[in-house]
Amino acid sequence: MRSDTSMHPVAKAIWFIESHFGRAIALSEIAAMAGMSRHHLSRRFGEMTGQNLNRYLRARRLSEAARQLAAGAEDILAVALDAGYGSHEAFTRAFREEFGLTPEALRAKGDLTGLTLQEPIRMSAIEKTDLPAPRIETLDAFTITGLAADFAPGKAAGIPALWQKFNDHFGHIPGQVDKTAYGLCTMLGDGKAGFRYLAGARVSTDDDLPAEFETVAIPAQTWAIFQHQGHVNGIPATVDAAFRTWLPASGCTVGTFPDVLEFYGEDFDPETGLGRVEIWLPLADRMTNP
To answer: 181: buried, middle or exposed (CB in 10 Å: 19+, 13-18, 0-12)?
Structure first.
């Protein structure tokens, strides 16, 4: 297993939880990914977040289950299994303890009002000052398809959960071109705050795709492609450095679509959050020597 010392162990633990809470996760597994013992990780997690690690994992699972039920999920047992519970009874007991009502009652209500949900914890990004110069490439148009959701400002910590859902489809998407993946980020229009993020893969056709998938055509254009170094949880720092330090000095102008494109190579491992990751900025002009 490759290690990465540039990201705090607690940040690694949070990323791993957000990427895997759809299945049973043992504390020992989280600790191994964070590179710490269970005891020390639990202690550091509490010191840095003010929360108990086991309690946070439980609350995140139940909060996502609550969202599914409020949206009208038909099979409560399936929701329970996705949340890591082996039976309807165990899930109902935990759900009532967490929210004060049964899963059936919330589904009938169809509204999350009054529930205190556990949102993802977001660790502050460490400022990146050693961003290597990008390579400049002009690429043909291509198509990406996957799962998309809107995120409010400062709520990007929910993105790993979207990837967790998409990864269930990855590798058997009709028309999938290869084993690379893309994260597409675009700001919301009409004066709305926040952004839309799509976790997807490149496809050759938009036929026979899952009904919940969104398909986006990426135009032919020139890109500034930055190699992200370290754990995937550090992507915000790389994006910030690209806009804050490289772009003003480059003489380039950012294109209109998308705002940012994340590229995940075939060697990227969602289990560890390590592997080839690139940040692509579209350029409005076709400069080759910025």
So the answer is: buried
